[in-house]
Design brief:
The structure is a single chain. The chain has a single domain, classed as P-loop containing nucleotide triphosphate hydrolases (Rossmann fold, 3-Layer(aba) Sandwich). It has 7 helices and 10 strands. It has a 6-stranded mixed sheet. It has a 4-stranded antiparallel sheet with strand order 2-1-4-5, covered by helices on one side. It is globular, with a radius of gyration of 18 Å. The model has no long low-confidence stretch (mean pLDDT 94). The structure holds adenosine-5'-diphosphate. Adenosine-5'-diphosphate binds next to strand 1, strand 2 and helix 1.
Length: 234
């Protein structure tokens, strides 16, 4: 088996608010191998956002170990973590998080701008073509539908060829037909070898993944392959 891209070993996260300690994660362990497609589910308050923040290197565990593509994030300075995030992760959010007054191609090129890449516009055009938006590269977000905006965000997430694409309720703002299109795209990306980890509260969306990890009260209560995977037509 290849080296995991995400390795969580007995990870805990405790928030302290004054004298009160909130144990958001209470010992979470799992590994995600390259090429996996994982949905993280669980009721509100179960620790999904906390876990995504840790996987995304936006926060560090209180205890236990998290390795991202072999890097122990606890040993990294904030500056190193920012560089790790840029190199290893692509983020897709529920609200798309695009710059409003900026063209699709510039939005997609943004991570490469921070990386100082001179070929960023050409690479961004290629990424937009890959997600089916080759004909809309100079449109601004307000000239695109919700589904198209999410495709721009997905192209931006892919531009650095990240080790992991992290998606937080990626279809939460979309109608079901548009959501289906985004799930088709995720499937294609996963078929091409991209590793995807997605938080969702929606069973139909989670069933597009190959594996579901369920959290409850800060613990993994189920971690299993999806038996009847939804196979959207491509
Ligand atoms: P979910 O995303 O599944 O709804 P969260 O990870 O947001 O769960 O929350 C898990 C627990 O941690 C909850 O009890 C929540 O109130 C608490 N929590 C989350 N973030 C913070 C924070 N920044 N400060 C204090 N408590 C928090």
């Amino acid at each position: 088996m290849s080296e995991p891209v995400v390795l969580m070993q007995d990870v805990t996260k405790t928030y302290e608010i004054g004298d009160i300690k909130v144990h958001a994660l209470r010992g979470v362990s799992f590994a995600v191998a390259p090429g996996e497609y994982v949905a993280i589910m669980g009721p509100s308050g179960s620790g999904k956002s906390t876990l995504m923040n840790l996987i995304g290197c936006l926060d560090k565990p209180t205890g236990g170990t998290y390795r991202l593509d072999g890097i122990d994030v606890a040993t990294q300075t904030d500056q190193q973590l920012a560089a790790t995030r840029l190199a290893k992760l692509g983020f897709v959010f529920q609200g798309f998080n695009l710059l409003a007054r900026t063209s699709a191609v510039r939005n997609v090129a943004l991570p490469l701008f921070y990386a100082g890449d001179r070929d960023r516009d050409a690479k961004a055009k290629m990424a937009l073509t890959k997600v089916g938006l080759g004909g809309r590269i100079y449109h601004r977000p307000n000239e695109l539908s919700g589904g198209e905006q999410q495709r721009v965000a997905i192209a931006r997430a892919l531009i650095n060829n990240p080790a992991v694409v992290l998606a937080d309720e990626p279809t939460g703002n979309l109608d079901s037909a548009t959501a289906e299109g985004i799930m088709t795209l995720f499937r294609q990306l996963n078929d091409e070898g991209h590793t995807i980890i997605m938080v969702t509260h929606d069973d139909d969306i989670a069933n597009h993944a190959k594996r579901i990890i369920r959290l409850r009260d800060g613990l993994v209560v189920e971690d299993a392959a999806v038996v009847n995977r939804t196979l959207v037509s491509t």
